[in-house]
Sequence to fold (513 residues):
Amino acid sequence: MTAGSAPTENSLAEAWLERSRERLAHTELIPEAMSLGRVERIADAIAELSGLPETRLNELLRFEGGQIGFALTLDAHSISAVILDEARTIEAGSRVERMGKVLEVPVGPGLLGRVVDPLGRPLDGGKPVVAEAFHPVERPAPAIIERDLVAEQVNTGLLVVDALFTLGRGQRELIIGDRATGKTAVALDTIISQKHSDIVCVYVAVGQRATAVERVIEAVRAHGAPERCIFVVASASSAPGLQWIAPFAGMTMAEYFRDRGRHALIVIDDLTKHAATHRELALLTREPVGREAYPGDIFYLHARLLERAAKLSAELGGGSLTALPIAETDAGNLAAYIPTNLISITDGQIVLNTQLFAANHRPAVDVGLSVSRVGGKAQHPALRQVSGRIRLDYSQFLELEMFTRFGGITDTRVKTQMMRGERIRALLSQPRFTPLRPVDEIALLAALATGALDDLPLETMPELRRRLPGHLDAVVPDLMKELGGSGALDDAGRERLVAAVRTLVDDLRGGGG
Fold:
């Protein structure tokens, strides 16, 4: 070829061939096995696949456009896969590939302070999560022999819960009530109360509105310790598959800390929407429906999820994972299928009442229907001493209040009982984001039991609760330090504590600010 002339077809081909030889000379050629199948049908984020006979249950699958899914049901000649990403570009005939591993999520300290989806992908605009390992979302619950007694308290900061329905580390306590009765608020206050504790918190949002989830995250950032929290979000706009795996993914992330001798708390908000998502996926994959149109395995689904919350034995590190699942009722019907399931699975329930919420009694806990089956053994010894009769006194007051609506009170003893009950109700009513320390709760209940609050006007109760922590730290700092552990309250200590509260009560009664 002469200078300045156009390159010929042969010269171009020879140049391309030379470049190709150079690339191949530096390329390591190794065999790679792939299991490929095809999409037969797809609708509503469920794909029916063929050609993958060795696929395992919950195995990850990659579609032609890069979307991720997992095998939900395995039939003799086909697989029903749930797609976890946008599925609009997947069509019948598209190629699908086995990834050779089951559904798994990242775990480790790198998740703390982050907002992620159930696959561990960041939703907060930050860098990708640095994972210490990847664990399956479906993991067996600890065996009975691997567990220990639930004997340590989780302080919720809510007097009505800590005094009457104490939550223990490793317990599963259901929060249940009608829509808009403050269920998430109770769980959120519990998370905020761990600001100065050693408990790592995991909040899992299942099918919630994005704005509601944002409010929860902002509240923790404003009042709690977000650097020790993980937010797993599968909002109402997320794919049904992501909503389905979200509680399991959150449980796996929390188990990482439990299995290393630390303590974790998981809030699942909520399992009613999770059950509806499970029903949707089950109907799309043609599973038989059961009672109230829910598939028969919905009980097993939630049972194997919540059984993973446990207090491990000392030989396994002594870590704990406490679960606070949330469920919604319709018109207070606790006997519906999903509420009945969850009540029988968990170790107790905190029931929220619509009438109490409407009457501005917050948190609107129904003390008659709520129960904690194991928490009493975990209650702070001093708190157990001073809260012995409060539930009985409050229940009697509610009955008396009902009967005395139709006539005046003339008996002095009944008047005294009514006065005490009104103060119990005022104490149990607590604003949001104002958690109490265990020592503050002990002081309030000790003062209540001795009658130190009987003459205090009801409208000053919020001010008493607000000023009490600083007052006690200044007046009886040694006693506060002693009660800050797990020590009991002797007679002398009780007298000093009540006397300290009386000085603040006298100041408030006298109009001191």
The chain has three domains: 36-102, 106-379, 385-509.
